[in-house]
Amino acid sequence: MSKKLLFSREEMTRLCVEALKSRGVEIDDIAKISYKQQARYTDDIKFETCRDSVLKILSLRDIFHHVLLAVELDKLAEKKMFEGPIQDIIEADLGLFGVDEVLGLDVARIYGVIGMTNFGDIDVNKHGIVNTLNTEGKKPGVVHTFLDDIVGAIAAAASTRVAQVINEEMAQTETHEKISLFDNIEEIK
Question: CB of 57 within 8 A of CB of 157?
Fold first, then answer.
């Protein structure tokens, strides 16, 4: 029997939720960060919109791979399965390591520069569950080196997605003249 390698969006979402939950992260924990991030810019934002965005992000194949990889890397480091100095570097979450942030940036980049900027804010200021994971990861035998960045990046991507959804809704409701790139062609000549 062959191993299953491809999963539906529904399956990927479920497996991501299970993997995150196994490490103490709930979907609402991530949505709270997204909400806090986006509430600075958007009045009347609904928490459920942020939660839906988190789930949408978790349904994406690349994110699925990032979440599972982050969880497994941290678990392997907890079991001291790496050799040489990389074990100590991951276990200590060395500030100069940066590979964990690269994975986080890769997740956040699905929503462009704004997503990456939001990730930078979350990574530096350690909002909500990201702070909890970072603090817990400093305790002996606990490693969250990769997970805290992936969780922060998912929150950043979800926050950015919320902004895009809201802006699309606004664009659909505004009434204006039809615009064409060629309206002012005579002015250019």
Answer: yes
pLDDT digits (tens, 9 = 90+) for 3-33: 999 999 999 999 999 999 999 999 999 999 9
Q: Is 30 within the bounds of a domain?
A: yes
The parent domain of residue 97 ranges over: 9-168
Tell me the CA distances in angstroms from 6 to 61, 68, 93, one per residue in order: 9, 14, 32
Number of domains comprising the chain: 1
pTM for the whole structure: 0.91
Q: How far apart are CA 122 and CA 120, in angstroms?
A: 6
With beta carbons less than 8 A apart as the criterion, state whether 80 and 27 touch. no
Looking up residue 122, the CATH number of its domain turns out to be 1.10.3760.10
DSSP secondary structure string for all residues of 94-144? -TTT-HHHHHHHHHHGGGHHHHHHHHHHHHHHT-HHHHHHHHHTTSTT---
pLDDT in tens, 40-65: 988 889 999 999 999 999 999 999 99
The residues, ordered by sequence, that sit 6+ positions from 86 with a Cβ below 8 Å of its Cβ are none
Closest CA to 36 of 27, 47, 21, 20: 47
Contacts of residue 126, defined as CB under 8 A and 6 or more positions apart, other chains included, come to 134, 148
- Cα separation, 168 vs 53, in Å, equals 14
What whole-number distance in Å separates Cα of residue 111 and Cα of residue 161? 7
